[in-house]
Amino acid sequence: xxxxxxxxxxxxxxxxxxxxxxxxxxxxxxxxxxxxxxxxxxxxxxxxxxxxxxxxxxxxxxxxxxxxxxxxxxxxxxxxxxxxxxxxxxxxxxxxxxxxxxxxxxxxxxxxxxxxxxxxxxxxxxxxxxxxxxxxxxxxxxxxxxxxxxxxxxxxxxxxxxxxxxxxxxxxxxxxxxxxxxxxxxxxxxxxxxxxxxxxxxxxxxxxxxxxxxxxxxxxxxxxxxxxxxxxxxxxxxxxxxxxxxxxxxxxxxxxxxxxxxxxx
Amino acid sequence: xxxxxxxxxxxxxxxxxxxxxxxxxxxxxxxxxxxxxxxxxxxxxxxxxxxxxxxxxxxxxxxxxxxxxxxxxxxxxxxxxxxxxxxxxxxxxxxxxxxxxxxxxxxxxxxxxxxxxxxxxxxxxxxxxxxxxxxxxxxxxxxxxxxxxxxxxxxxxxxxxxxxxxxxxxxxxxxxxxxxxxxxxxxxxxxxxxxxxxxxxxxxxxxxxxxxxxxxxxxxxxxxxxxxxxxxxxxxxxxxxxxxxxxxxxxxxxxxxxxxxxxxx
Lengths: 265, 265
What we know:
2 copies of one chain form a homodimer. Chain A is an alpha/beta fold. In chain A, 35% of the residues lie in helices and 21% in strands. Chain A has 9 helices and 15 strands. Chain A has helices at 26-37, 53-62, 75-86, 98-106, 130-140, 167-177, 190-200, 214-223, 241-248; strands at residues 9-13, 19-20, 23-24, 41-46, 72-74, 91-94, 110-111, 119-122, 146-149, 155-158, 161-164, 183-184, 207-211, 227-231, 254-256. In chain A, the strands form 4 sheets. In chain A, strands 5-4-1-13-14-15 form a 6-stranded parallel beta sheet, with helices on both faces. A 5-stranded parallel beta sheet of chain A has the order 7-6-8-9-12, with helices on both faces. In chain A, strands 2-3 form a two-stranded antiparallel ribbon. In chain A, helix 3 packs parallel to helix 4 and helix 5 crosses helix 6 (167-177). Chain A is globular, with a radius of gyration of 18 Å. The mean pLDDT of chain A is 96.
């Protein structure tokens, strides 16, 4: 029996583990459903900052995953929850897309234009304009404005090549002002990982963190002292694994061809 | 007589010295015309990366300046000249606006989409899209692509507050890829300052560099061993001068209330 099967809970990445965009990864979906049948607690954690939790939930259901919406933690929702817990009356300006705005509103927060804001929330926006960046810049220059980034992702692999992540905006602001976010919510930040543990009702030692990105999912797991497993169904492959280990200077506790390899398949 | 009047040539910044946007600064315009009557050689140097030299020339003529188009060096034109001198057959992808594209074409360079380019030229674009940044990102990741930035300006003071400069894009790319431009053309880079000296036909010691930005114009002057004078008609004021000197750890050779103060007015 695979040692990971002794864990009580699993924190599972979405992209590259159970799906790629709108396409399911059958081995990943099957493995999650098998883990659930064994009574394991499961939570999905995604750094996606453009989709609401509801939208991601519907996608995972279409993949054939038997889950509840509450078992999904995505940075849009996690950011809104974090800010609401910190300041229920926060007045938020965000660079983000509708998915992020929806979650901020659902959390009871007010979305305002930049000159009325006391929170700057930076999330990816594939329709971003110069004016959006100008507004974020002006807030970034104000010490009385709290600056939260949904996630630190620099770039993503798309089908035809890399595309910019939220780091595009974080980097532009850093270069212009010297300021980095006060808080980053997404992996490998412990903020989102602690939300995941809270949802599971478990301690870090009792869970395994499963993901496809060595530099994101492995440090995220280490933040909460969980065991980590890297699957080779996403950006990490048998081919680049050794080079990635060498480049980053750390490695996962386990490497799995697919998540289903946990069952010896 | 002001010691700067012993210089044979003057390298004069545009914004904050002879004009603010479309509005002339009368003392600056008058002083330049007086210098010219004394037989001084004059060249204007601007970090503007959205306007062609022709457009800037027409603006300066409207200000009442008696100049020729060849006496203007602006990063749109200077970038095109630099690339042409380096590689006449360069195939350029640029993030920039029409003003920059016009200059690249005028220099005989071919403007292509990113997947056909061997030069990436980053200049400010107030209509930039996610797709533009994606294309720049992909070129930035390629070692066989030469990466030129028109200028390093992080932000500009606009009437209602700061607005992003070219540094917005340079910073986004740096954050995503770790790569900085191979060459930066605009001040304080010596690239544009050497083009200015060449136009004047003078050595650095024979000229004065006049500008309104301590952190840009003073190091630009020092790059070519010219004397530097800071005017207080732009971003630097009597009020913030000492704080700026302290912050940057250097100062200009002279401070002038307006450029016309060179004549004791």
